[in-house]
Model the fold of this input.
Amino acid sequence: MIFQSWRMSQREGLRADSSHFTLDGVPVQILGGSIHYFRVPRACWRDRLLKLKACGLNTLATYVPWNLHEPVKGMYRFEDQLDLEEYISLAAALDLWVILRPGPYICAELDLGGLPSWLLRDKNMKLRTTYPGFTAAVNSYFDKLIPIVTPLQFSRGGPIIAVQVENEYGSYAKDEHYLTFVKEALMSRGVTELLLTSDNRDGLKCGGVEGVLQTINLQKLSYGAIQYLADMQPQKPLLVMEYWCGWFDVWGEPHHIFSAQDMIAAVKELMDRGISFNLYMFHGGSSFGFTSGAVDFGSYKPQVNSYDYDAPLTESGDYTTKYHLLRDLLGSYQNKELPQLPAVQGRKVYEPVVFSQHMSFWESLRCTDMVFIDKHLIGILDYRTQETAVPHSERERILGLLVENCGRVNFGPALNEQRKGLVGDITLNHTPLKKFTMYSLDMTPNFINRLQSLKWKSTDEKPLYPSFFRGSMAVDGQPRDTFVKLPGWSKGVVFVNGQNLGRHWSVGPQNTLYLPASWLKSGDNQVERESPRHGGESVAEVLRAHGIRFIFTLVGGHISPVLVACEKLGIRVVDTRHEATAVFAADAVARLSGTVGVAAVTAGPGLTNTITAVKNAQMAESPVLLIGGAAATLLQGRGALQDIDQMSLFKPLCKFCTSVRRVREIVPTVRKALAIAQSGTPGPVFVEFPIDTLYPYHLVEKEVSPKNIPKGIMGKITAWYLKNHLTNLFAGAWEPRELSPLPVLIPQASDQEVQRCVELVSRAKKPVILLGSQATLPPAPVHDIRKALESLGIPCFLGGMSRGMLGRDSPLHIRQNRGDALKEADLVLLAGTVCDFRLSYGKVLSRRSQIIAVNRDRTQLLKNSDLFWKPTVAIQGDVGSFLLRLSKGLTGHRCPEEWPQSLKDKDRTKETANRAKASERTERHLNPLSVLYNVDKLMAEDSIIVTDGGDFVGTAAYIMRPRGPLSWLDPGAFGTLGVGGGFALGAKLCRPDAEVWIVYGDGSLGYSVAEFDTFTRHKTPVIALVGNDACWSQISREQVPILGSSVACVLAFTDYHIVAEGYGGKGHLIGREDEVQLGDIVKEAQRECRDGKSVLLNVLIGKSNFRDGSISV
Ligand SMILES: Cc1ncc(C[n+]2csc(CCOP(=O)(O)OP(=O)(O)O)c2C)c(N)n1
Done:
């Protein structure tokens, strides 16, 4: 929760309107450090960010590499090592601000400067210009990337304070319209934080764009570069976007070392002058795999894998002298202690790996059906040596050339020429050779995996170079970071457990490859075949770590492991008689407890049965996690039982839908789903678990392994494929993982917005508040909101979940004549209330009133404002927190008392009329108003009222008085019948001491009457008050007069009380003859309920015209 208090106190974004930056109006100095998430193993992100913070820095800067996020055109990756959202959220959780540098070009010593090389398939491509082929690709990529980061912006509750437009464009400057294009591409997708460009001194002249702050990159302060920037941009704050405290290395040249003393002197000067800066790099990490780029200033020089950069933290995250000096320096400028230094990570020297097998490179090409006749290595050409002697021979021979891509240039004018392969003539004795057949070997982990099934030779046989070598490494106990050294080897690539560590080359300067602990597996296999553990346990562990107390379900084999594991961990498993009930119950738990409600249902029909309830939760903005079973990963789309495309069904209903593909993904996926459900505008999320992700290895293996393996190649391939699939499914399944909740992002009003509202409200004579359901969402406690409303003294109309917010008899709670009050009001505060059908689309609001609207959701906030109403101030933010801040800003101010009094007087007149209506005799049976008045009088002080029906509950909404905050549950905007049983079940479980009432129409009762069985089995006694008029009255009320028929509206006076008894409850039939005893029967029902029985009061009611004129669809 620290995170939330932080975000509530600082709301106005970074401003650059004077000589210093301000954030939320307060001057700030950015003390930044660059760490690239794609260069640090994900398991180490937290450690490195903690070290950044402990050094006294307050901001994290990171590039976003397009080529890694879209490795193949149209295929996007934002998960695992590339989970940018998680990385930024982690920074937020550690109270760090973030400067995002999304490119599209970033340089960063990455292959092609972070641009995807597939762009160059277009022969005419002009990178980093407004060439349509380039801008179209940028637009598609930004359509995916930017929506991920916009909710993380500072003004929306996240940590991102600034976003960079391109990178060092001044040094390229091939298209004067290009920077405007990038700027607009960001802004049009919702980037609202401060924009900046970043250039070295020479690039500043051409690197700017209108309305965007320019910043500088430099290594030395002494050449007047900063003054140059200051002169270019007078009255603007200064930011050294990249202060180069180290440098990158290229193969074959010395390692760069920059003096620690120089760095400290420079940082001290920046601190003394109050200049903001970002250390590039604070921690460089490694360019794993084939990600590193090259330089070409006349000659091509590929970069090494290590991106150590001589930074304050080493490649493997260790402290250096630079780090300690920097920390001492920055600490001396701060008046509070810096956070403690995170512990040093253990290292380990492992036993040397013995390569027991090898396979010639040419052999490996069998994978691709290639045949090479001559396989002898005759020479190596590189960018320095361009010629080699071919031994003479008379016979015909085949010349094979193996071309290695050492990395594309990442900087300078040569970007467009970075096509790789045989791109020029190959000459033999000055004659160009033609008709090469070219094959591309991607060397991806998949390719390497495929090699495993080929024939390897033992090392007793002499290898033919180049070759693949295979060996295993023994790792006992907890794996530790280590380094791979290859003495005596010349050039190659190292893969460990499918991860590409990068290139080795004896020319140096890099002699070792960093191998992070998180990529090693304890023991020498990655799959614990004997383990009895199953994925259901992982699900239960995350739920428990998030404080989830109940899981609602209707059982099915697909999800049994989740239920069994939950029970074992003390999460109460509540099985219902319909999947919709399970979700409705989860919805109620979410609303009443301020956490996420959880339901688990089986694949196929189990899931389709929940659809109405999930949609209802979406419309009610209720955070619900739906866990669904699914067909086995291997069998999806192959006609397995209950195998349908579930994702397509739930995508439109949920904020987040995903299907778990491997056991190791379970924990991070469920954590993410739970955080998303509560962030922004809360709502349902769906996680699908294929059955083989939930059962133990040995059972899944039994299912997957073919009974009789067919002989021959096909059989072998099938067996291999299945085995590989299984290995993948369970690899690293039971490694320890972080279970704790991820930060929840909640948008908050800015201080300016609150201040503006304070002024408007303080001037208003006749203000009115319309409180909606969102006011009851966390983090603001409902009881504090109640106090805030009481101190404001403004009359309130309460809707949805906020009914009851002011208690039973508050002088501020106005229930009747809302239309008249709105006509008279000079200020209306729509606190979470939406201008949909419930407010006649905004038409009830007067054009003369000032209107403040607050809502977490932008679409809801502005609904119909283009047509029927216009907000004076519209604030996207949390309603409860806003009300607390508003009342604080108005301390000492109270709305003039005559205004609520005059409304209350009118309320009383209406109330007297209703009472008179209640005493009228209906043609037969009981008067529904009278029944409701009587029951309301007798309800306990801690009652919760659940409503499910049409006319009868519509009447109840006017007559019954919820007792306090969170004591009223209705379906919400979706108007769903059938919520009763589930809502009551959830309510009773959350508040076992409360008296839970369900007010039912007789029609609606039918949907969930079977849940009386659930109430009995789970000992959750509730009381149902059924207004039995043998009719779907709300519909017939208009169908009959307008269309002249009551077809399909007529029910019978069914003995529902007996149905309840059949399910183990108590039932009472109440007719006109029982009118005088009604009170006694209610009291008896309350007694029975306290004794543990659920009770159904089947009250026969007559027709009243009370609801004539109200909505009836
Ligand atoms: C799932 C669903 N089906 C149908 C409707 C349409 N509908 C709205 S009110 C209503 C009548 C409710 O009848 P009942 O529960 O008997 O209450 P009454 O109006 O008689 O008091 C119906 C059918 C709906 N809102 N939801």
In short: The longest helix spans residues 898-919. The chain has a mean pLDDT of 92. The pocket of thiamine diphosphate is lined by residues 949-952, 975-978, 1001-1004, 1027, 1029, 1031-1035 (CB under 6 Å).
